[in-house]
Specification:
By secondary structure, the protein is of the alpha/beta class. 31% of the residues lie in helices and 14% in strands. It has 13 helices and 17 strands. Helix 6 links the parallel strand 3 (134-140) and strand 4. The relative contact order is 0.10.
Amino acid sequence: SKLHVASHFDAFLGEILRRIPAKDRKTWKVAVEDSYETGGQNWTDGMLDKFKLNYGYDPLPYLPVLNGNVVGSQDMSDRFLWDLRRFIADRVAYDYVGGLREVSNKNGLTTWLENYGHWGFPGEFLQYGGQSDEIAGEFWSEGELGNIENKAASSAAHIYGKAKVSAESFTAAGKPFARYPEVMKQRGDRFFTEGINNSLLHVFIQQPDERLPGVNAWFGNEFNRHNTWFNYMDLFTSYLKRCNFMLQQGKYVADVAYFIGEDAPKMTGVTDPALPAGYSFDYINAEVLMNRVKVKNNKLVLSDGMTYSMLVLPKLETMRPELLEKIRDLVKEGATILGPSPLRSPSLKGYPSADAKVKQIALDLWGDIDGKTDKKRALGKGLVFLGMDMQTALNSLNIGQAKIMSATNLRSSLTQNTDISRIHHQPPHTALEHHQYSPSSSPNSRATVQRTHSSSGLTPIKEYGLEQSSIKKSTPTRGSLHIF
């Protein structure tokens, strides 16, 4: 409810604003929404009327379904539940996240959001993140947290046109003072390759006196003056700042967009079939496909410059007819899709005529290809693939892998009259993601290295034998770093 969000803002943040004279509000810039950890949400004021307006039918007769009863039929009850869950996800995105953004912006603040949550998250992670001014993920110094959160954040940022992708970085639980920059750097490098380009150190606690070990948090690493390596931390933080700056200069390069489906709630997508090593992807949702995607030169294109060579559909049996119709239009205009056809609409809206429309549009798109003996079909200027493995599909579109070079091969390439527009470093056990930057404009340059180790461009890489003179400098060279 935007009304309740505004009321909460006024009673909490508004009270702080009223106590700070306008001339002194120089450092408070952002209202933060951390990861969602407040349990499930399934009701709000005026919900029945809003639902009826959105879906065109009265939900009141179907409310016994919430108590486990079947109304009409099992299929109709399931469709009502689908509509309700989707409606809740939409309202959480537009009214909660969007509502806080509106009231924050009116008061001179922007919003910063982690677009996921492990305890009752009711939204759709891409749409949820897209309504905030800034989006963030997180990763811990060890363990599994970060495996899905950062790709969720970077995908949302990329498809909603947000240049900065933050991460609550290097957090931890327990074992205070047990971690150090060498260990942290490996994790940071990994998530730079997943699209993170703005590091927030977790956590800094002001130490008011000289007693040791001082005030310590249970969560986070000790980025404070009582840590033994604090006075030697500049090399690490300078590296992070340089990475942040360099990675914010270009557009992320993603070969494929994986559609996450329309079901809700949802906190991540599915990469099936998986990408081979040397390719990269973003997740994409229905809202962006409907409203922000066009086709240019046989690629899906967003207005801010992101492009995708192929749209991969998940193995789901349902899709709303208006979305499938938009996908058909994109294919006719030159897009390529890979994946199975839906069989019906998931919704009770327009039932049963919506099911018939889905079947007709699916027939227009997939025709008679079966994914076994016939796996490819042309439609308009575009292509439809079914049952094709990912590498074959990529080869069909002439999408090459990112070049992975050894130190020896790179030295050899530098002796040739070639221009190197980007160099990527793949941390262990991660898929290679890459970023796009403009190559050198000089036709006679032997080699211009514009981005180096760990996607950062911080310094020449000794093992590659690069000299300082071969690094193309850009200004300004200093990035930013933030602390929690």
